């Protein structure tokens, strides 16, 4: 699984790579979390390659193999699939980094806006004296109705790179924490009335 995780690291930020290499040098990397992350990264990229192969195979067996318009659409569809897979991989990196090098703070809802895709909830939190924001998009009307401006929610962010932040869920700690020496954060978590 280490080779698959190295493949996953190709898509990660330098900060996370350096953090992971420090953990590996200390010998405190959790092999279960490493295997799980490698599997999901491989799965996402496998979806991309399988979709591209399927589309290419269908193009070659059809009479449209010399049609450049069709090839353009094929490339466009492959790029869209790659974009989705890349976003999934970056989300996985964010979760691994935040939970492995994380500090839990309280975030406060500062705005909620309606768009065609649902409510967007914007939370503000302090990271070493710096004001940062975390947004949760596509929330249903019923979830957004239950919270008002000033609502508090726990947020976990990476000490070495505060821009890697996630909404904290204690149940996810064992799924995403790469460091075997790290204990789950002890913080008075505000009551969550709904799941984000």
From TrEMBL:
Question: Which keywords has UniProt assigned to this entry?
Answer: Membrane, Transmembrane, Transmembrane helix
Where does the source fall among the domains of life?
Answer: Bacteria
Locate the transmembrane regions by residue number. Answer: 38-57, 69-89
State the organism named in the record: Kiloniella antarctica
State the name under which the record lists this protein: DUF5673 domain-containing protein
């Amino acid at each position: 699984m280490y080779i698959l995780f190295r493949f996953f690291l190709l898509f990660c930020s330098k900060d996370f790579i350096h953090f992971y290499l420090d953990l590996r040098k200390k010998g405190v990397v959790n092999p279960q979390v490493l295997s799980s992350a490698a599997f999901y990264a491989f799965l996402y990229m496998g979806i991309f390659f399988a979709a591209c192969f399927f589309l290419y195979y269908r193009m070659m067996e059809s009479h449209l193999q010399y049609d450049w318009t069709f090839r353009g659409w094929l490339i466009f569809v492959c790029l869209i699939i790659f974009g989705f897979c890349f976003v999934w991989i970056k989300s996985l990196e964010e979760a691994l980094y935040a939970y492995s090098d994380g500090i839990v703070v309280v975030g406060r809802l500062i705005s909620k806006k309606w768009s065609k895709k649902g409510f967007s909830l914007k939370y503000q939190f302090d990271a070493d004296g710096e004001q940062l924001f975390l947004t949760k998009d596509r929330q249903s009307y019923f979830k957004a109705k239950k919270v008002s401006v000033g609502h508090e929610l726990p947020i976990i962010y990476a000490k070495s790179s505060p821009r890697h932040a996630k909404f904290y869920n204690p149940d996810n700690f064992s799924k995403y924490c790469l460091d075997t020496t790290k204990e789950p954060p002890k913080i008075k978590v505000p009551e969550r009335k709904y799941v984000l």
